[in-house]
Amino acid sequence: MAQLIAALDYTNAEDALATAESLRGCPIWMKVGLELFTHEGPAVVKKLKDMGFKVMLDLKMFDIPNTVAGGVRSACLMGVDLITLHALGGERMIHAAVDAVRQSAEEGGPKPLLFAVTVLTSMAPGPTSPASRRAAPKYASAVESEPPDTMSSTAASGATKS
């Protein structure tokens, strides 16, 4: 079944939560992006979860593996349902994120989906484009090799074809 994600691209919780309230009862997810999360922090995620929504934390994490694993662990503690990573962070970074989700699940915590973004829509043709195209299939394989109980194969394969 297809599901919709409402992008809460606001700078403040008041506007974001007003939009979410207007959609309460609809079977959709709420996307909390970098701007809203940086301004409002984990509190906005908690409020959306309390309203009954599934939450996509769209931060496109991209850093050294240990740092991304720590960010993913923190996102798990918030109870988010989906976390975005930037695939250009590399195979080791993606595996560290998967391991962090697995650890959360083993400890009885949530196990959100991981979604690997390969190319941003704002990227113009240039030096990073060929690298992104070469990276996509390689990282798709790394993510798809995880067991289905750790990650949705639909989300993993869809993540690399955008």
Give the SSE layout.
Layout: E1 4-7, H1 13-22, E2 28-33, H2 34-40, H3 42-50, E3 54-61, H4 65-78, E4 82-86, H5 91-106, E5 113-117, H6 128-144, H7 153-159
Parallel strand pairs: 1-2, 2-3, 3-4, 4-5
Count, helices: 7
Oligomer: single chain
What is the chain-wise order of helices and strands? EHEHHEHEHEHH
Mean pLDDT figure: 83
Q: Assign the structural class, choosing from mainly alpha, mainly beta, alpha/beta, alpha+beta, or little secondary structure.
A: alpha/beta
Low-confidence stretches: 139-162
Tell me the major beta sheet. 5 strands, parallel
Helix content: 40-55%
Q: What is the count of β-strands?
A: 5
Outline type: globular
Distance between the termini: 19 Å
Which tags fit this structure?
7 helices, 162 residues
In short:
This protein has about 160 residues and is an alpha/beta fold. It is about 50% helix and about 15% strand.
Task: Describe the overall structure.
- The chain has 162 residues and is α/β, with parallel strands linked by helices.
- The protein contains 7 helices and 5 strands, in the order βαβααβαβαβαα.
- Helix 1 links the parallel strand 1 (4-7) and strand 2 (28-33).
- Helix 5 (91-106) packs parallel to helix 6.
